Amino acid sequence: DMKVTQMPRYLIKRMGENVLLECGQDMSHETMYWYRQDPGLGLQLIYISYDVDSNSEGDIPKGYRVSRKKREHFSLILDSAKTNQTSVYFCASSLGTGDSAETLYFGSGTRLTVL
Amino acid sequence: GQQVKQSSPSLTVQEGGISILNCDYENDMFDYFAWYKKYPDNSPTLLISVRSNVDKREDGRLTVFLNKSGKHFSLHITASQPEDTAVYLCAAGENQGGSAKLIFGEGTKLTVSS
């Protein structure tokens, strides 16, 4: 069963706390992504990972870092969360090769609230 | 500025009509274009995609039209149904050795009224 799994689904944190968002995929996809979705802005790319320890900044990387130590896991870390990081965060993966290389498979999202 | 833009935040169409969703992009290097569908509190899923070597692709009730000179692509949904009601996100990117750094538009909320 092809799946991208995100944990947790909902999270409330206080300003200044550290936040860890986890993402896993069972499709052996090479490429993984973190996006955030805000009203009126669509999905904004935070980071992209092309494989283990091969990460690249997206359009809005400031305030975030990522970790990919295994192909199936990609973590998003917020060191000292800020209120403007309140958002819905989506993880996605793509095969990276073949006819459907670019197709993104999304997780169900994590709704993060920073108070 | 916004590299991929959907100028209409919302669209209402009568059941059975044609829904036309539009997307404009800025980057000449983009060679992959896609439409994703998103229901509330759900994750986006791919509807249809096209590469820059074609200007049209059909899949059932869905057709993507690509106008490279105008940096514009659109999604046409014929015989629109109430279950087509959702947010539609366009996306574009440049294929970089298999992966594409997809840039998404803001989304258009389509409502199909019966």
Tell me what you see in this structure.
The complex is a heterodimer of chains A (115) and B (114). Chain A is mostly beta strands and 115 residues long. Helix content of chain A is 0%, strand content 56%. The model of chain A has no long low-confidence stretch (mean pLDDT 92). The termini of chain B are far apart. In chain B, strands 2, 4, 5, 9, 12 and 13 form a 6-stranded mixed beta sheet that branches. With 114 residues, chain B is mainly β. Chain B is globular. Chain B contains no helices and 13 strands. Helix content of chain B is 0%, strand content 56%. Chains A and B meet through strand 4 and strand 5 of A and strand 4, strand 5, strand 9, strand 11 and strand 12 of B.
Query: What top-tier CATH class of chain B fits best?
Result: Mainly Beta
- Tell me, rounded to a whole number, the average pLDDT of chain A: 92
Taken in chain order, the helices and strands of chain B follow as: EEEEEEEEEEEEE
Q: What is the assembly state of the chains in this entry? A: heterodimer
Q: Number of DSSP helices of chain B? A: 0
CATH architecture of chain B: Sandwich
Shape field of chain B: globular
The structure class of chain B reads: mainly beta
* Structural domain tally of chain A: 1
- Straight-line distance between termini of chain A: 37 Å
Main beta sheet of chain B, described?
A: 6 strands, mixed
Shape descriptor of chain A: globular
Q: Gap between N and C termini of chain B, in Å?
A: 37 Å
CATH topology of chain A: Immunoglobulin-like
| Biggest sheet features of chain A | 7 strands, mixed
What is the CATH fold-level name of chain B? Answer: Immunoglobulin-like
What value does the Rg of chain B take, in angstroms?
Answer: 14 Å
Query: What's the SSE pattern of chain A?
Result: EEEEEEEEEEE
Which two chains share the most extensive interface?
Answer: A-B, 29 and 26 residues
